[in-house]
Design a protein that fits this description.
The protein is α/β, with parallel strands linked by helices. It contains 16 helices and 20 strands. Strands 7-8-6-9-10-11 form a six-stranded parallel beta sheet. α9 links the parallel β10 and β11. The termini are far apart.
Length: about 450
């Protein structure tokens, strides 16, 4: 197995400005400094926990704001995915002709190994983790990261032509690619999201579709046949297409049949793994298993390794995570459901007795899509955060809505409403940044409040 063509640029002595000091920006700065570049890491934050270590590597820190000169005088600008590409200092650099690369684009130019890139509005993290587990079980030299885990820039030094990099790629990462070239590109689904960052749904879709644009005839595009938008977005690609889907009849592709995940092609039907080894809450997560199995098939993972990987996988933290079962009330943490479509799938995973916690920083979409599913299965909804009034208005007349000022209050109210037997579901349909650092902190706070209730019960 050979890696993708490298486009290595000599960075020795080059002035490089890195915008954004989150994980990806820090990893890019460290990599570039190791290549002899004069790196300035710039962020609007005034403090950085890793400041001393970064300074010891010769990285200059520019905190509390971005100086135009840092970017306009640079030989190269690298942008962390959390930084909007329309930032005035980036526009100023463009006007001066300074090359601007996203972190994932920079890293991919130095990787000797192949890339499996996974995108979609929901399910990326689960599919990425599960794909990595399948490859690992089959004995591949595999790394997992990107939007989760280790940034791609941090994986360069350990990469060889035989390494496979399984990379979760967000629209923020894809919008600044130029030559990023996945061997296998996966698009799981598409629905409106991140409209607080992208100006239109069409712009968001265009960013997602870029995952296919540098692929060639020898590459693979793994496509969800159940999602018309994904089928449309994938049409422009040159790679060979491999379909997966639970609902669409597929004469060729990965699907479900008689309790098995199977592959159908011109040779017939091959059983890949039994559904009995899937231990994930929510039928929609079976789609992620199908996608991972499809990638595994293309990469040459034996069916026994696929089965072992799925059987040993209990899901990711904050993704349909069963936290506790207290006297017949289950608490489920789906804090990663940060958009309406993800929350809808979480809600539809339960038949009745549901009390969802919704709200946060609204990113766009139609909360009204939740009305009928909630009316059919929810006792009430608890609304939190900046979007609580939006939730109340969107669900008016379909289901009772109670507002809560904190996660502690929300869990208390939801538990009261869910008794004696029901489900308290954190599926916010919103980002977390109004109340928490990120979705993980929000999910952790939910779990802490559930633990408090469990302790108080004496069980």
């Amino acid at each position: 197995m050979t890696g993708q063509p490298q486009q290595v640029v000599d960075m020795d002595g080059k002035r490089v400005a890195v915008a954004g000091a989150a994980r990806s920006g820090v990893a890019a700065a460290e990599f570039l400094a190791g290549r002899g570049a004069h790196v300035t890491l710039s962020d609007v934050k005034t403090e950085l926990p890793a400041a001393a270590r970064l300074a010891s590597l010769g990285i200059r820190l520019e905190l509390g704001g971005h100086r135009h000169e840092t970017f306009t005088d640079a030989d190269l600008v690298v942008v962390s995915p959390g930084v909007p590409p329309e930032l005035p200092v980036l526009e100023a650099a463009r006007q001066r002709g300074v090359p601007i690369l996203g972190e994932i684009e920079l890293a991919s130019r130095y990787l000797p190994g192949r890339v499996i890139a996974i995108t979609g509005t929901k399910g990326k993290s689960t599919t990425t983790a599960l794909t990595g587990r399948m490859l690992d079980a089959a004995g591949f030299d595999v790394t997992v990261g990107g939007n989760i885990g280790s940034p791609l820039s941090a994986q360069i030094e350990g990469s060889t032509p035989g390494t496979v990099h399984v990379v979760e790629t967000s629209s923020f990462q894809l919008e600044l690619i130029q030559t990023f070239h996945p061997w296998i590109a996966v698009m799981l689904n598409f629905s409106p999201d991140h409209l607080d960052r992208h100006p239109t749904v069409e712009a968001y879709a265009a960013a997602k579709a870029r995952i296919f644009e540098n692929q060639e005839a020898g590459d693979w595009a793994v496509i969800n046949a159940d999602d018309p938008d994904v089928l449309r977005l994938a049409r422009t690609g040159r790679a060979a297409v491999k379909l997966f889907g639970r609902r669409t009849p597929l004469p060729r592709g990965t699907t479900v049949e008689d309790g098995w995940v199977v592959n159908r092609d011109e040779r017939g039907t091959e059983r890949l793994l039994p559904l009995s080894v899937v231990h994930l809450l929510g039928a929609h997560l079976v789609d992620d298993v199908l996608a991972a199995a499809t990638v595994g098939l293309l990469a040459g993972v034996p069916t026994a390794a696929m089965t072992a990987a799925v059987d040993g996988f209990r899901g990711l933290e904050h993704a349909m995570e069963l936290v506790a079962d207290l006297g017949g009330v289950r608490f489920v943490n789906d804090s990663k459901a940060t958009n309406v479509d993800a929350a809808l799938h979480a809600i539809e995973s339960f038949a009745s007795g549901l009390v969802p916690i919704l709200g946060g920083k609204f990113k766009g979409g139609n909360l009204g899509l939740l009305r009928e599913p909630l009316a059919a299965r929810a006792r009430a909804v608890v609304a939190i955060g900046e979007a609580s009034d939006l939730v109340v208005d969107a669900l008016a007349g379909s289901v009772p809505v109670r507002k809560a000022a904190s996660m502690a209050a929300a869990v208390d109210v939801a538990f009261e409403l869910a008794q004696p037997t029901g489900v308290v579901l954190l599926a916010p349909a919103c980002a977390s940044f109004d109340m928490f650092r990120d979705y993980a902190e929000r999910g952790q706070r939910f779990k802490e409040e559930v633990a408090r209730i469990v302790r108080a019960s004496g069980r």
